[in-house]
Fold:
Amino acid sequence: MKLHQEDPRLTAYLLGELSLEEAAAVESAAAEDSAIRNVLDETDRVRVALEDAFGAKKEALLSTQRDRIRKAAKEAARNGALQHLKSHPRARNPWAIPMAIAALIAIGLFVMTLIPSGKSGKGTRQVTTKSGGDVSKSVSGTAKPSSASENIMRLPLEAGRKSLSQISRAVRVEQRLPSPDEVRIEELLNAFPLRAKDSVALFGGCSVGTEIISCPWKPSGCLVLVDVQGARDASKKMSLEFRTNESSVVRHRLIGWAGKAEDVSSATSSTMAKGGNVYLVIEVEASATELGELAWTVDAEPAPAVPLVRDPGKEPSDDGCFATLVCSFGLWLRHEETTMIDESLVLGLAREVASDGLVADRYDFLDLVDQAVKVSEK
Structure:
């Protein structure tokens, strides 16, 4: 995609109005052109400032996702499920505010194109490290090709479960939001029995299941849910790697280990206890549906690789929706993705999960989400 600094698609991208393919193309163009990247960064700062000034709530969901949330909310209300998850106050004239912001952003974008760039001619872009974390590097005009190591991310197969109790105590007893260090998203995920429902590969008595769903806070991205199960008869040593399709994957990261590169880069093989399991979520931004594959071993024996192919039209499973809520809630508490994840998104995903037959531990989690949002508003 050829873009220039006054291209209206830049504003449309920041407002979440582009399709998955168009958004991915904009991100790819920004990675290759520091001037486009700078325009996006500056425009996004203008957008955030205007939203704060006008009190506007951000629409971070795709239209199809919003429709599902509305449907789930109506069904939950009909069935008497989770009545305490109420809508929170919104600014007056909700349709007029986003339109005004969009217009002002467009004006700001035009003005910024008239400002000359710095003498060095260098900007910043996001590149993916071997550990899966995103870091900014100063580069000139054209993006440098990724090395082979950047396209392989080792996945740790050990996760605790204590973070849920820490968050619950902070919110329910101490009436405060937990600090980012108290929030370990991988521990939140593994506090619940979850299964990835798309495909399952078996080898040596162990299994790796996957499910790929749209990312609610990043329209051009998707979430790869990975469910690793140990053998039922004995402990086995397992290793797991995400090998990206370098021609389509823009960036990727392992959710829950953001800022903890040593946890990922040091991961080799782990002893999976008899009947043990671990649940992982990888956020991937890609320009095509073929994301790569999961390569894994059992007791040093290579198992058949698991291909990762996204089907944008496929509905997520109940476990997939719940895992997405857990990740969103954790990122919100950690103050990550702040321009895309707010309390409205978290509550909307909670309503999507709500159902008449929700099991007790998940219902309690929805209640925790609701209480945390109320604490944040005090």
The radius of gyration is 21 Å.
